[in-house]
Amino acid sequence: MIFGMDPESGRIVWRTRVGSGSSLGGVEWGMAADSARLYVPNADTMNLIDEILRPLGKALRTIQPGPAKPGLSAIDPATGEIIWSTPTPLAPCRLRSDCIRAQSAPPAVMPGVVFSGSTDGWLRAYDSATGAIIWAFSATAETYATTNGVENQPGGAIDGSGPTIANGMVFTMSGYNGAERFGGNGVNVLLAFSVDGE
Questions:
Q1: d(Cα 26, Cα 75) in Å, to the nearest integer?
Q2: Residue 34 dihedral angles phi and psi, to the nearest 5°
Q3: How far apart (Å, rounded) are the C-alpha atoms in residues 89 and 117?
Q4: Spatial distance between the Cα atoms of 121 and 61, rounded to a whole number of angstroms
Q5: In 3D, which of 187, 117, 181 has the Cα closest to residue 155?
Q6: pLDDT in tens, the chain (198 residues)
Q7: What is the 3-state secondary structure (H, E, C) of 77-94?
Q8: Rounded Cα distance, 104 and 31, in Å
Q9: Which end of the chain has fewer beta carbons closer than 10 Å to its terminal beta carbon, N or C?
Q10: Residues 6 or more apart from 151 whose CB is under 8 A from it?
Q11: 191: CB partners within 8 A, 6+ apart
């Protein structure tokens, strides 16, 4: 649930639900904004875990009602109206543990583009006006030779801390282990991206 509040009085002006919510988010680590929209990631982590366990006869007892709705939404900050909502795609994941597509890390925004990661190791760029995915990268699809000399460093979940945009580059941490040890590998790698790949 997202709340718009009057900054002078603290009065709630609007409230908007973007997911079912769960004990591990919902909206977990933060949001981003530009002059037109508020960008809100949603995890619904426990509902996603329940989706995996329920067919195995191990359904969770402590989930919120409703289906998991992981994804990224853009909200009008004046009215609370959802402008667009893009679900987190089901995508290949090569983590050593279960892949959960929760979208809990805070996004980062620059003119025209929102960058947002998910706990299955994917970093995506979204058109800020429409929510269309315009670029995607799987941090788990390969290993990395790092600048500090570690060979074959695996990528992993993007969670906890979101991407940072600076000097024409996008930086993100990959490998966060998570509160429930789902979607991570406990080994972090810092990934740097540029338009020309240098």
A1: 15
A2: -125, -165
A3: 11
A4: 27
A5: 187
A6: 999 999 999 999 999 999 998 877 899 999 999 999 999 999 998 888 888 887 888 877 666 677 899 999 999 999 999 999 999 999 888 775 568 899 999 999 999 999 999 988 999 999 999 999 999 999 989 999 899 898 988 888 898 889 999 999 999 998 877 655 555 666 789 999 998 776
A7: CCCCCEEEEEECCCCCCC
A8: 9
A9: C
A10: 143, 145
A11: 123, 139, 144, 155, 171, 172, 173, 174
Structure tokens at 181: 């040890």
Report DSSP state, residue 149.
S
- As given in the structure block, the two tokens for residue 14 are 């609007």
Domains of the chain: 2-194 (2.40.128.630)
pLDDT computed for residue 52 by the predictor: 80
Q: What are phi and psi of 176, to 5 degrees?
A: -50, 135
Give the side-chain half-sphere CA count within 13 A for 65: 0
- Is the separation of the CB atoms in 173 and 190 below 8 Å? yes
Please give the full DSSP string across 98-110, using - where no structure is assigned: -------SPPEEE
* CA dist., res. 42 & res. 11, Å (int): 24
Task: Give residue for tokens 């718009």.
Answer: 4
Name the pTM for this structure: 0.92
Contact present, 25 and 104 (Cβ < 8 Å): yes
Residue with tokens 């795609």: 89
**Total residue length of the chain:** 198
Report yes or no: 118 and 136 within 8 Å, Cβ to Cβ: no
